[in-house]
Amino acid sequence: MSVRSTTSTPDLSSQDPDWWRQAVIYQVYPRSFADADGDGLGDLRGVTQRLSHLAALGVDALWLSPFYPSELADGGYDVDDHRDVDPRLGTLDDFDAMTAEAHRLGLKVIVDLVPNHSSHRHAWFQEALAAAPGSAARDRYVFRDGRGEHGELPPTDWQSVFGGSAWKRVPDGQWYLHLFTPEQPDLNWDNEQVRADFRTTLKFWCDRGVDGFRVDVAHALVKDLTEPLRDLGSPELSSEAALAGFAPGTHPFYDRDDVHEVYRDWRKIFDTYTPPRMAVAEAWVPGARRALYARPDELGQAFNFEYLEAGWDAAELREIITGSLADAHAAGASATWVLSNHDVVRHATRLALPPGTDKDAWLLSGGHAPAVDAAAGLRRARAATLLMLALPGSAYVYQGEELGLPEVADLPTEVLQDPIWEQTGHVRKGRDGCRVPLPWTTEGPSYGFGTGGAWLPQPPDFAAYAVEAQDGVAGSTLELYRTALRLRRKLLDGESLTWADDVPDGVLRFDRSDGWRCVTNLSATTVDLPAGEVLLSSAPLDDGRLGPDTTVWLGL
Question: Per the confidence metrics, is the pTM higher than 0.85?
Answer without folding.
Answer: yes
